Amino acid sequence: MPVGIAGSLVLAALGVHAAVATPSADAVISEVYGGGGNSGATYTNDFVELANAGAAPLDLSGYSVQYLPGSPTASSKWQATALSGTLAGGGRYLVQEAAGTGGTTALPTPDATGTVNMSGTTGTVALVSGADPLTCLTAADCAADSRVKDLVGFGTAVVHEGGGPAAGASNTASVARSAALTDTDDNAADFTAGAPTPQNSAGGGTPTTPPTTPPSTPPTTPPTTPPSTTPPVAARIHDIQGPTRLSPLAGKAVTGVTGVVTGVRGYGSSRGYWVQDPRPDDDPRTSEGIFVYTGSVSPAVAVGDSVSLDGTVSQFYPGGTGIGGQSVTELTKAKATVVSSGNPLPAPVVLDAADVPDAFAPSAGGGSIESLPLRPADFALDLYASLEGMNVAFSDARVVGATDPYSELWVTVKPRQNPTRRGGTVYTGYDQPNSGRLMVQSLIPLATQAFPTADVGDTLAGRTEGPLDWSQYAGTYAVQARAIGTVEDGGIAPEVTAKARPDQVTVATYNVENLAPSNDRAKFDRLAKGLVTNLRSPDIVALEEIQDNDGATDDGVVAADRTLTELTGAIAAAGGPHYQWREIDPVDDKDGGQPGGNIRQAFLFNPDRVSFTDRPGGDATTAVGITGTGRNTALTASPGRIAPDDPAWTDSRKPLAGEFTFRGRTLFVIANHFVSKGGDQGVDSRFQPPVRGSEVQRIQQAIVEHDFVRRLEQADPRADVVVLGDLNDYQFSPAVLGLTGDGEVLTDLVDTLPPRERYSYVYEGNSQVLDHILVSPNLRHDVDYDVVHINSEFADQTSDHDPQVIRLEP
Predict the structure, then answer these.
(1) What is the DSSP annotation of 150-199?
(2) pLDDT tens-digit profile of 364-388?
(3) Residues 79, 66: contact at Cβ < 8 Å?
(4) Among candidates 149, 51, 127, which has minimal Cα distance to 94?
(5) 616, 555 Cβ separation under 8 angstroms
(6) How far from chain centre, in Å, is Cα 466?
């Protein structure tokens, strides 16, 4: 059954009964805020606050806070955040969730941290006895689940307690119980909206009801507690690392830690060095290497020094705990004694196809894998964790992710793992993240040796060697290369699509990556060359990420005529047609993207080849409709936006629909740019399988557009429809399958390509699909489709996306 149809059936069944959890005499959900980091927000993170209405403390070990979208479909999943510690009698407990790009104020120190990206306006939160995700998708089923201790639906959530959900949640308002923590099992009655007031177990934050009378007894000065005299632990590096991702000695002082320095990072604000014990134990799970953090102070050691260390063990989460990355076991506040210099380095662990497992990561049902014993022979992610901080090497590896502006590239040490035709590694499914991919960074100062510039398909020849570390900025394991191979050219070149016949209309999509008049003229010229030479001047082009006339300056400007004038002028100067354009200016700061940029989709068209049917009435907030039947089927506005006020498009680009005519035939074209994957847990996450929180909104967007296209095809079963653009999701994703209706409403043309050619974007060494062209069923056999690889595989890119083009005979 198509996802869109299934979603409709599920929604029809929801909300018949309200969920009722027995009123709690102790722990309740006291406040919910999903607007963290959104436009206008003060706080940077979403949060859930718990409170204890009783006097006795409650042990929260084994409990979780869970979130469900406000309008769940059959494929919706509860997302869980595990809790620990104690909720004191009369106390509060703060659960921090995902961060957004906005906000100015961090939450008080949280008592628990998760990565759930909650909606600011609608959703359901449950306090659950147990860590396993709930499975209920209706209010009645959730009420029947004895694990649900408390439940709050807010906004328009169909799963809620009592007569209705709590009202008033927004980017700037939470929903909260009164100071009396009244729990009548009616969310609408028990919660009111107001400014967020997060409080943690230590009393940090803004109290909901400040005390009105002073304490009867003046506070006394607490007695001075003498510092701990616990002696440091004598340990070797493998004792510190332990058999899991978490150090058994975290937070403890250690002494007499010995090893040889294998790498030094003497730049930036996160300086330090790696030390490896040359006398390993016989446990493959325990790393023999460790990073010694020196902060902003340059290390006073050199590669080859034998050192003895006293310091404190720290479990550090680069980038913070909220993004889901792996932690790094480090030594901090370390005193190093150099015993000798010029020592040989421990032999590197060689990473090759035979030794890196095919399977990528163990599963914890969406929870953290940190406490699981490492299984380096079974999972690549466990292998890399077991080698954290150790000297590793590989030789003659194929480049699968081109050099980026930050002096990083990706190779594969498993060259036969899902190779693309041009030398990359294709991403074929959520369970196939390609375990052989590995990032390379360099410890060599750029003034001494430039970082190699490589394209996909090149070979990093010779040996690359250095410590393996979790990269704070890239969010993945990376070889910190002390020695780096040389580039051998793989020979790929930018592609040129085939020439169309005169009786074929050509339609393309191209994400031009935040194009604004402030960009260098060279970018406009290179985009023009790509359109004219590589795509052969398509008759119709759907552009994504056209910014307004002053780019990312947030000053209320929304018009983009200067941007489009400069682009079309560059195209004409490159020998292309004199394109005309159509677009709709968005409401300021309502479509996501760079703040102030007001990105939108736009149509270019060659008036010598096609005509655009201008029909007034389309603007930023007016929904386009469908009128007529058969050959008289038409849009009520052209250009027009599909359901711009639907919550599915909150902080996201609205689809742009237009009518074109080619040789007397009407062609309906819909340009898209679905919400991005920002905030999703990465494939390398410590939470496995990783949660794709942004997917919820894309599924909603897909359902809205699926239903619009279906109505169009019902009005005219022979309607020629092209849906295209940056859908920010894979061809196998629930969102894209929901948009196509499993092929009944639209055909995703990327599925017609051989599997190893299905990509338009390269991310973390995975060649993957984000951009799509889909056509109505009557066109699927009369179309030539081409992904034109001119950007994603190259270090020198005009955009991070490859364009696509079709040649069809309507």
Answers:
(1) EEEEETT-SS-BTTS-B----SS-EEEE-TT----S-HHHHEEEES---B
(2) 998 999 999 999 999 999 999 999 9
(3) yes
(4) 51
(5) no
(6) 29
Helix (H) or strand (E) holding 775: strand 771-775
The token pair that represents 785 in the structure block? 């489709």
- Total number of residues shown for the chain: 810
501 within 8 A of 469, measured Cβ to Cβ: no
Contacts of 411 (CB under 8 A, 6+ apart): 394, 397, 398, 399, 400, 401, 437, 438, 440, 460, 464, 765
Burial class (CB in 10 A: 0-12, 13-18, 19+), 499: exposed
Q: Tell me the two tokens of residue 606.
A: 């060659």
Mean of all residue pLDDT scores within the chain:
91
Q: Which of 41-45, 198-202, 311-315 has the highest mean pLDDT?
A: 311-315
Q: Could you give the 3-state DSSP secondary structure of residue 5?
A: helix
Using an 8 Å Cβ cutoff, are 609 and 628 in contact? no
pLDDT tens digits, one per residue of 724-766: 999 999 999 999 999 999 899 999 999 999 999 999 999 999 9
- What the block records as the tokens of 139 is 């209010």
Answer for the pair 330, 646: CB distance below 8 angstroms, yes or no: no
Cα separations (Å) of 691 from 66, 645, 739, 773? 13, 27, 21, 27
| Whole-angstrom distance, CA of residue 592 vs CA of residue 544 | 13
* Beta-sheet strands, E only, within 360-407: 391-401
User: Cα 598 vs. chain centroid, distance in angstroms?
Assistant: 21
Whether residue 740 contacts residue 746, with contact meaning beta carbons closer than 8 Å, is answered with yes
Count CB atoms within 10 A of the CB of residue 646.
15
User: Taking the complete model, does pTM exceed 0.85, yes or no?
Assistant: no
Residue 631's SS3 state is helix
Percent of the chain predicted with pLDDT > 90: 77
Torsion of CA 292, 295, 299, 300, to 10 degrees: -100
Which H or E run contains 27?
strand 27-33
List of residues 6+ apart from 656 with CB closer than 8 A: 542, 583, 584, 600, 601, 602, 603, 639, 640, 641, 670, 671, 672
Contacts of 622 (CB under 8 A, 6+ apart): 637, 640, 641, 644
Alpha-carbon gap, residue 280 to 303, rounded angstroms: 19
Label residue 201 by pLDDT band (50, 70, 90).
confident
CB 139 within 8 A of CB 229: no
Residue 221 CB contacts under 8 Å (≥ 6 apart), including other chains: none
Per-residue pLDDT, 204: 65
Cβ-contact 134, 66 below 8 angstroms = yes
Does 72 sit behind a cis peptide bond, omega within 30 degrees of 0 on the bond before it? no
User: By percentage, how much of the chain surpasses pLDDT 70?
Assistant: 93
Tokens of 676: 């991005």
Q: HSE on the CB side for 536, CA within 13 Å?
A: 17
Give the C-alpha separation, 8 to 154, whole Å. Answer: 21
State the first-to-last Cα distance of the chain, in angstroms, to the nearest integer. Answer: 29
Q: What is the pLDDT of residues 111-126, one digit of tens each?
A: 999 989 999 999 999 9
Tokens of 626: 């469908």
DSSP state of 534: I
How large is the C-alpha radius of gyration of the chain?
Answer: 28
Q: Give the separation between CA 432 and CA 229, rounded to whole angstroms.
A: 50
Rounded Cα distance between 106 and 236, Å, is: 37
